[in-house]
User: Fold this.
Amino acid sequence: MPLNVRAAVVHAPNEPFVIETLQLDGPGPGEVLIQVKSTGLCHSDLNAYEGKTPWAFPALLGHEAAGMVVECGPGVTQFKPGDRVIPFLIPFCGKCQYCHSPKTNLCVEGFNRLRPRESHFTLNGKPVSQLWGLGTFADYTVLPPDTIVKVRDDAPFDSIWPEIVDWYAGKKIDLDSLITHKLPLERIGEGFATMKSGESIRSVVIL
Ligand SMILES: [Zn+2]
Ligand SMILES: [Zn+2]
Assistant:
């Protein structure tokens, strides 16, 4: 039975976000259902929103988030319901030549997921793409376990994910201090407007 999920959908580049009820399938074998608790608005999302990074529409954007495992599909043993997790952009498939080397950041699956692929979300039977295989501007999402990492049980949902962005940036910036707006999902368009105008580098949507 698909789950009905509240989500902020972009139907075409630069069109306003629309809060829709999407149908979410899964978790199937090797997949994890996650309740998204907070999600960051990033310039990479803005680039996809504006069509500067090619992507498939209608789209569920969002790739920086924190959430809780709700259900694990068959074969998933490394997570359990209640785990606090962060999705990340570059998977660790564990199978490719790069995952067997110190250069796991070049995992070939990562390049596959930069292209639209099968989505777990539909709107009235029509697919809504998950940005880079993630799609976090929704109350729930389904992800493969190779793109999520468990964090501490007391990790704060509204700010833990900037830590992972800080890693990417080599700790050269303190992203926490750059978060200017905390918004509900219904006001996500305002967050994008402040990024576009340069007023904000990072806003957070609390779900
Ligand atoms: Zn980002
Ligand atoms: Zn790999």
About this structure: The mean pLDDT is 90. The longest strand covers residues 32-41. The two ends are 23 Å apart (CA to CA).
